[in-house]
Predict the 3D structure of the following.
Amino acid sequence: RGMFGALQKQVFSMRVGEIVGPIALDNFYVILKLLGKKARRLKTFAEARDEIARNLKLIKRKQQFKQFINQLREKHRIEIERTALRDFALVQNL
């Protein structure tokens, strides 16, 4: 929050149409006028359905990929040739 903590507190305590300030913030001052407030509301299931589906698909894909990698690790032995990697890195930097 830092410098905006005091500002945030001030804004949320204002009434519509109210003017507040000047408020000192680090290297500048602000004057605020609250033009309006919107009521906060939750999305309906119908409104959120597509976003929920995308998030669930993403979670499922990540789980499947992790499972696939773990299966590969169990089946195959992997050796890392450090000298080959170093030589490859040197060639790539040319």
